[in-house]
Write a structure and sequence with these properties.
224 residues, 7 strands, 16% strand, alpha/beta, globular, seven-stranded parallel sheet, 7 helices, single chain
């Protein structure tokens, strides 16, 4: 489990982690750049993961795609290209435009991710925006599932005035919501060999505290 993906606004407790998930937006490559430059950027990115892999600490390589990546032929090709560049790694995919997972496209998107042998990211986040995705608890890989919890702060999720990500993801999951996510994680865990949970709220130590509560509830549910 890994807590938080952004700089926190105060001294947090140490992250809860035994395996690392490399959280990265797809490399920001200028499409007009020469092919050799783009190939070198990909090579350097993959090489940067070698120490984690050698230490047995690399779980998934996470690609969080931007909201402007639309559900069309070009969008599918871009996602597939990124997965191809990471051959030999297990890639998790987080899509951030509602149309990818709306009722009209949901089944096809899940099959698309499954066909890439990639991991669909089960997202818990604010709802009601174009860059919101539904909480779709589907698995697409036999070895891994990923639940990524961004919090549910609808007031700050898309604000342009926040001085840092800590304000955008300022959310403290109440026990009732954590209990709900524990039950969801347990259901998913029966379908795969490894289930990863990440808490993204990064205001002060909220993500870390939520992670500790999650682990305590999970242990209690397993022992009961």
């Amino acid at each position: 489990m890994r807590a938080g993906g952004h700089a926190a606004r105060a001294e947090p407790r140490p992250p809860i982690a035994t395996k690392a998930i490399s959280c990265c937006p797809e490399p920001a490559l200028d499409r007009g750049a020469p092919p050799e430059i783009r190939a070198e950027v990909w090579k350097r990115f993959v090489d940067a993961l070698l120490p984690l892999r050698a230490a047995g600490k690399l779980g998934l390589v996470h690609f969080q795609f931007p909201p402007w990546l639309t559900c069309n032929r070009e969008g599918h090709a871009h996602v597939a290209h990124c997965v191809e560049q990471m051959a030999g790694h297990t890639v998790s995919i987080e899509l951030r435009l509602q149309s990818w997972l709306d009722e009209a496209h949901r089944a096809a998107t899940i099959e698309f991710v499954r066909g890439l042998n990639a991991v669909h990211t089960v997202v818990d986040g604010p709802q009601g925006f174009a860059n919101s995705v539904p909480r779709l608890a589907e698995t697409t890989h036999p070895d891994y599932a990923l639940l990524r919890l961004h919090g549910r702060n609808v007031d700050t999720y898309n604000t342009k005035s926040a001085p840092s990500a800590a304000e955008r993801f300022d959310y403290d999951y109440p026990d009732a919501e954590i209990r709900e996510k524990v039950a969801e994680a347990v259901r998913i865990a029966y379908k795969v060999r490894n289930t990863h949970i990440t808490f993204n709220p990064c205001d002060e130590d909220k993500g870390q505290r939520n992670g500790i509560t999650f682990m305590k509830m999970l242990l209690a549910s397993c022992s009961g």
